[in-house]
Write a structure and sequence with these properties.
- This protein is α+β, with helices and mostly antiparallel strands.
- The protein has a domain of 380 residues: 2-Layer Sandwich (Fructose-1,6-Bisphosphatase, Chain A, domain 1), CATH 3.30.540.30.
- Helix content is 49%, strand content 13%.
- The chain has 27 helices and 14 strands.
- A hairpin with a 5-residue loop joins strand 12 and strand 13.
- The chain is globular and about 65 Å long.
- The protein starts with a strand and ends in an 8-residue tail after the last strand.
- 54% of the residues are buried.
């Protein structure tokens, strides 16, 4: 998944932010809007034990963060868009149900992110109704980053509640559970013959709670039974309205998978979803494991690893959840479909490809579905603004049963997300402050899009077995592989005549200019990748930086350096050694004077700190 360094969710979000979002909306209007909506607000499955909340950011800092050029909207399609107008009435009706379904994932995503998110939001609503302007401004940021704790574009952690802490287990595990205690409990349970429960605890779709001096796993379908059943009901209604039998079949099976703890139902739904190429609508329940640091930590404990191996237990990081609803753009999708015929060729050009099983070959190339989508609604992790936003995703991941049993993968590209990033005066400032004027002509949004296409396809390539052994470094190395592989495949597909020399130059220069690190972030997988690549290109002459912090990019040296880094990434994945991954990342994420100079120029060019999403089509469900 590629994320832009730049995430709507429920109806009250849009009422608060639409049109008046960057102006001083009158207190009377803003507070009354919330008051009307809060009476119909969701009731969470879980509530926090924490009863006292305190706002962390001052009004002065909140005002600064909410300035128009610092808190920037991303607007999804409305009823006047050609994409919506051209839908058959049955699909318009289905879209309403899908948008309605998407809203029910929000409280689930909040719980999985932080055990105090829901109670904090209720506190904010209560304070706003009392006329608390500081709470109102905090609420706007809360809805942008979707939680108490997030990250802005400068890699600074934004904490909205005083004394709130980053939790390694997020909301997946008990708030007071330390990594050390977690390991000891698991060892005791394994030694006491409770391997079956440990396997459930280390499953990617379970909430973990305390049970005496032990831990107990609760499957998502049980933990979020009410929300999942409401989503399922809307999917069943959408299936009846849909004009497309294939899409209806998928929705029906996805609804069934939400009602019962049965991995095979998930597997069937995932396989059906991955084959959808020609449906008018897009609906995804995204399940990806990017934030759970507790589960992968077991790989750092040799004694525990030995016990897990003895019992044949794999530790899978837990899934965050999100929902994406959209309309498939046939023209954009047509271009994407052309590249899938080259996937076997791309697989043959991956480094060390004789040392691991190839999941892409000429016999299965048609299973790689790819669609370009006009977004109507996003929620959960698809909507989080945490220093970046998802512009495409390649799913299901290799930890899912569907892939492990031979199912395909599918890539979905987000038109509105990618179009929102590089445009207008902010783009001109970026080019003027960061890039040699002679190379300005090579920057294009199509270049960024082509890079993203290759990034997502490279996720399909390379080693897939035993990646869980890399622990918390698994996703970091996987994203590094996809980024560096995108550069390499630009060059390889040029040789095959798919891309021209001009398109390769545009792709390389556009990507590098678009992904200059804005800060020294060594926690986010994507930002770590950016820093490692820039360090390599600075070292091998792929990027030269003047005294004023202006880049001149040598495309051939960039491509050469990318090949070396892609080989490094594959070697790390094949090693299955978390320590090797850790050492490589630490060695290659040093912050240099050149990076600081580039970062300073980027901050001057792009003042945006946070963002939020406006979803006009939310009105269609009323």
């Amino acid at each position: 998944m590629r994320i832009l360094p730049l995430y709507s969710y429920s109806s009250h979000t849009d009422i608060l932010f639409h049109k008046n979002s960057n102006k001083n909306m009158s207190k009377e209007n803003s507070y009354s809007s919330i008051k009307k909506l809060s009476s119909n607000y969701y009731t969470p499955t879980f509530t926090s034990n924490k009863h006292h909340h305190h706002l962390n950011l001052s009004e002065a800092e909140l005002r600064e963060r909410l300035l128009p050029d610092r808190f920037v909207p991303i607007t999804l399609i409305d009823k006047n868009s050609s994409a919506y107008k051209n839908l058959a009435q049955g699909d318009k009706d289905a879209l309403k149900y899908l948008i309605n379904a998407a809203q029910y994932i929000e409280p689930v995503a909040y719980k999985l992110d932080n055990p105090n998110n829901i109670s904090f939001e209720k506190y904010l609503l209560s304070e706003i109704n009392k006329g608390n302007n500081q709470a109102y401004m905090t609420y706007r940021l809360f809805n942008g980053q979707k939680g108490i704790i997030g990250k802005d574009t400068q890699s600074d952690i934004v904490v909205l509640e005083k004394h709130a802490k980053q939790l390694p287990g997020k909301g997946f595990y008990p708030e007071d559970l330390s990594v050390e205690e977690f390991h000891e409990i698991l060892k005791n349970m394994l030694n006491n013959g409770e391997a079956d429960e440990v396997k459930k605890i280390l499953n990617l779709r379970s909430i973990v709670v305390r049970e005496g001096n032990k831990l107990k796993a609760i499957d998502y379908t049980e933990a979020f039974k009410k929300e999942f059943r409401r989503i399922a009901l809307n999917l069943e209604r959408a299936a009846k309205s849909s004009t497309n039998p294939q899409f209806a079949e998928y929705l029906t099976n996805q609804a069934a998978a939400l009602k019962v703890n049965d991995p095979m139902l998930d597997c069937k739904a995932d396989k059906l979803w991955a084959k959808m190429q020609d449906t008018p609508l897009e609906f995804t329940i995204g399940r990806e494991c990017y934030t759970d640091e507790m589960t992968p930590s077991v790989m750092r404990n040799p004694e525990l690893v030995e016990l897990l191996n003895k019992h044949g237990i794999k530790a899978y990081a837990k899934d965050n959840l999100g929902i994406r609803v959209g309309i498939v753009d046939k023209e954009g999708t047509k271009f994407l479909s052309e590249i899938k015929h080259y996937l076997p060729y791309m697989a043959s050009k991956m480094p060390l490809n004789n040392m691991y099983e190839q999941h892409i070959n000429s016999a299965i190339k048609s299973d790689a579905a790819m669609v370009d989508v006009d977004l109507a609604y996003v929620s959960g992790h698809f909507a989080e603004y945490r220093g970046g936003i998802t512009i495409a995703s390649n799913l299901p991941n290799e930890d899912k049963l569907a892939v492990q049993t031979g199912g395909g993968r599918r890539t979905v590209y987000h038109k509105q997300m990618r179009d929102a990033k590089f445009a207008g005066e902010a783009l001109n400032r970026r080019l003027n402050l960061l890039l040699n004027p002679e190379q300005h002509k090579y920057f294009s949004n199509s270049g960024i899009h082509n890079f993203t296409i290759l990034h997502e396809n490279v996720h399909t390539l390379g080693p897939k077995l035993n990646l869980e052994r890399l622990g918390t470094y698994k996703n970091k190395i996987e994203e590094f592989k996809a980024d560096t592989g995108a550069f390499v495949m630009f060059d390889e597909l040029r040789k095959k005549g798919f891309y021209t020399e001009q398109q390769v130059r545009e792709g390389v220069i556009s990507y590098i200019t678009g992904y200059v690190p804005k800060g020294h972030d060594t926690t986010s997988a994507h930002r770590i990748c950016d820093i490692m690549q820039f360090n390599k290109f600075l070292a091998n002459g792929g990027i030269e930086v003047s005294e004023k912090g202006v880049m001149t990019i040598n495309v051939q040296k960039v491509l050469q350096g990318a090949r070396e880094m892609l080989t490094d990434a594959i070697k790390i994945q094949l090693s299955g050694d978390a320590n090797v991954a850790k050492e490589y990342i630490e060695r290659n994420t040093k912050w240099s004077e050149s990076l600081e100079l580039l970062s300073q120029n980027l901050r001057a060019a792009d003042r945006k700190l946070n963002s939020y999403i406006i979803s006009p089509l939310i009105k269609t469900i009323k």
